[in-house]
Structure formats: C-alpha cells, structure tokens
Amino acid sequence: MQKAGALYIHIPFCVQKCSYCDFCSEPIGNYDAERFVRALCAEIRQRNDEFGMVDSLFLGGGTPSLLSEASIRSIMQCLKDVCIFSPDPEVTIEANPATLDEKRLRFLREVGFNRMSIGIQSIHANELRVLGRIHDWAEAEAAVHDAGRAGFDNISVDAMYGIPGQDAGAWIETLRRLIELKPVHISAYELTAEPGTPLFAGVQSRRYELPHEESIEEMFYCADEMLSAHGYEHYEISNYALPGRRCRHNMTYWQRRPYAGLGPAAHSFNGLERSSNIDDIGRYISLIETAQSVAAETTVLSDDDIWKETVFLGLRTIDGVCRAALSAEIWTAMEKALQNERLQGLVVTDAGSLRLTQRGRLLSNEVIATILSGIEKHLRAQSAAAHPDSCRFDSPPARNRPAQQQPFGLSQE
Question: Could you tell me the pTM of the whole model?
C-alpha cells in the first residue's frame, strides 16, 4: 500500500445544478455548509495516515469557490495542520465565474491556492442556457482577468463541444475567445447527456437535439488544430496545455499514482485498491459526526485489472503506454491485437511505446475497447494452447473502471 501524494477534496455544493451534471452536488441552500466543512475536516484528520508528501491538492465539486471565506480557510488550515506538502505543490480550486471577483480571488491566493480552474464552457448565451450555467461570457472574461491581477499565473479554463444547437462555427468562436485570454491550460470536453439529468430528459423528449457525429468530429479536429497552432500540447484526450503546464493532479490519475479522495462520492487509489465514499451528502455528514466509516466500497485490484488500467489510462495521454510498464506476455498479446484491421491508422508504436493517433484520440473509447478485447483474446488462446486438456477456461474479470473525480478530475464548473 502506497501513501497518497495527491489529494482530491469534493465540495458538493453549487448555486444550481447544471442540466448535464450527474455528479454528487446539490444547491448549497439545501445544507448547512459549515456543518459539512466540520465533517470534512474530521475525515481529513481521521485519514491522515494515508497521506504521503503532498504534491498536488485539488478542490473540486460542485462549486468550491461558493464556500464562505471562513469555510475555505478552515479546510486549508486543517490540511496544513495534517499534511506535509512538497516545496512547490500544485494547489487548485475549481470555480464558476459567477462566484468570483478580484477580492475573492485575492483571498484564495492568500490562503494557498496557486492554480485556478474556471468553468466557462461557452461564450454563447444560447449554449449557456441549454447547459444551465449561471454565468455569462462577460463574467467569465472578467474572472480570468481578475485572476491574473490577483496573482494567479496558472489558470485553466473549460470548454464544451457537442452542445445542442452548436455548430463548428460557434465552437471555433468559443475557442478563439478563450485563446485570447491566454490561459496556460484548456480542457475541451465533448458533452455527454447522462441518464437522469435534465439534459438527457430533454434529448429523449426531443426538446434538444445533439449535434450529428460528423459535426462532433469536425469540432474535435478544430480544437486540436487551433490549440496546437497556438502552442498548446494535446497531452490528454480532453486536455491541452502550454509547455510545462500540464495539470500535475490529473497526471496522477493517468499515471496510476496514489491519491486520496475526501468528501462524499470521492474516490481513492493506494496502488493496490480503489475505494469510494458514499454519495449521500446528509448521510456522509451524520456518519462522520458519529465516528463511523463513510466508505462505500473497496475493490482489490487483480493482476488483470492492473494491466487493463495501465493500457486504458496510458492510451489517454500523448505519452501512451510504455513497454516497460507491461509484462512481456501482455505486450506480446497487445502487439498481436494491434494487427486488427479496425485499428489501422488509429495507433502508432515507436520507441517502445504505444500511442493513439489524432483520429485514434477522437475514437478513443472504441479503440481502447478493441485493444483490450484483442489482448484478452490472445491470452485466452495462449492459455488454451498451454492446457489443451482443459475442458473450460474462465475469462479474465471484466475491466474495472478506474476511480474518477468527476471523472478523473474533469471540471464541472
């Protein structure tokens, strides 16, 4: 079991839930936020033996920037009391532009945050209405400028494509205006209509129509080409950064390094197990107050789980999967799997690593599933050849979906 070098703190409050949000979050008026913060700090103290030297801290949600100054100060002081931080940690807070002004930003900088993740999503009023966002473009633009004046030089912004009513022209305009703000990091996510959300209901009732697949592809390529032309490295399927400005915290997830998730619905990974907290906010608070566990489930990873995660997570990044990260048996099976005609032009192998091509990143879910299936097929064939008298062969367990923080740190602001 390894100590966590990254901490994720889930703040499950917002002004109102966005139409696409299926994360654990509720309007802040439904709960006693100060009581929640006391419970959160109690969990941090209870689990301090899980923390190693902390190199990244990420407050996500929800809308962490919505908390009062007193609540944010309490959380940060608790972490400083309990944790040992590296000399130059990355300390991120997610924010909705409508909750920011220069005074609030100066406070956040003062208590230790050095990276802002600002959820903008779109510059267009009609798209923001469909998403259920509470800010407009003027507020978003002001928030980025104010953050710079407050001393933040590590600013990330989020944008979405695939929004109902959106076309490539509108997406290009959003990208152009975001690039003009000169953030060091841009997350560009394809919108997904998740079951149970108002957006999903709207799509089902045909109130909204998602863009066609051809339009989604065009928007993906527009982002890749525009951002690359302005010096942004497409270092992960949904993330772009200027040189040296990759999100350290998110790289923890992709590289399968240990992290601890605190707060309701937060996930953790210690190198051997993946675990999660309960996703009921009220129950989370009451269990902490009565000194009970808030763990929901723990999965001990098998050898199969580990190599599958290594392939799945590695292929999401520009670095790909390194041969040294897999056993000779798995690498050989993967080389055979790559002979599948469906993968031609979607993957590339060089210098002892496997990476997705540009089109491979567009089709990443399908490509990765095909590779994993192909590896399993060759492993089964190898086992059958080694044990010809065996009357049956148990397939490896289904791929364990890696732990995610909305998911894997994806901002929902």
Answer: 0.91
